[in-house]
Write a structure and sequence with these properties.
The structure is a single chain. By secondary structure, the chain is mainly α. It has 11 helices and 2 strands. Helix 2 packs antiparallel against helix 3 and helix 3 runs parallel beside helix 8 (217-228). 51% of the residues are buried.
Amino acid sequence: MVKAVILFVVGLVLICLGGDRLVDAAVAIAKKLGIPQIVVGATIVSLGTTLPEILVSTTAAFDGSAAIAAGNAFGSIICNTALIAGLTQTIRPTKQVETASLSWRGIFFFVVLIGLNICGFLTGAFGRPIGVVLLLLFIVYACLNVVRASAEGDNGEEKEDTKNISILKQIIVLAVCAACLFVGANLLVDNGILIAEAIGVPERVIAVTFIALGTSLPELMTSVMSLVKGYGNVGLGNVIGANLLNMLLVIGIPSAVAGIPLEQSTVRVDMPLACLVMAILILPILIRKKSSRIQGIALLGIYAVYCIASFI
């Protein structure tokens, strides 16, 4: 138990340090290239912070733990949106949201998620064809980010002197920070699972709570540090981008490799709830062009009820 506690603390330290520098490096790249903060948050940052979910779900698929593979993905979407975005918007609502960048990503998210909901309800599984489609959609999403980056570049953000910013240096910092987040999250998840198993918690509950929360800690730390440093759009973009990658890669890769049979609780609870919390986060922002503290409080309340219901 002492060893588990020590490893838990080491993981927490790695996540804190990695999240802190990851935000700085991402914002520096955004300024240097003239790319909106929300675009960097939804691409570079979200890819780095989603690595733990990708590893956990792919490993679970090879090990035959389908409930963990599917539960981790949708549990992470719920955690990212209801807990992380809920917490940051409760503390400091984003006053000026880059809606042009947010709108098409929101549409892309809902189209994919509704499609997965229908498929899961009708077939009770995500087979290899669905996995291949999701991976192809990831390529489409990546291309859209590249194509639209220049169009979204003129976003009214304050221009600063970027002569002393080295793109190569910041990319190296991003890679190192992503590695720290990756290792730190795995340390936390592994020890959290050991504790959960010791007290007899079911596999799906472990997936949608302990593992989902553990693998979402990079997003949490990144969003909190973005908030502290005054880059709210980076945190918001990170959450939305990470949610998309949770479907396209975290579900796509293991589905393409081995297929993922779904539990009824995943189809009837986790997937519809993921759609609901994203609607609560995105739709008011698109209408008002800013978020509100009420949204954050509502999302936190939903997450609390969800966790309690999962254990009950």
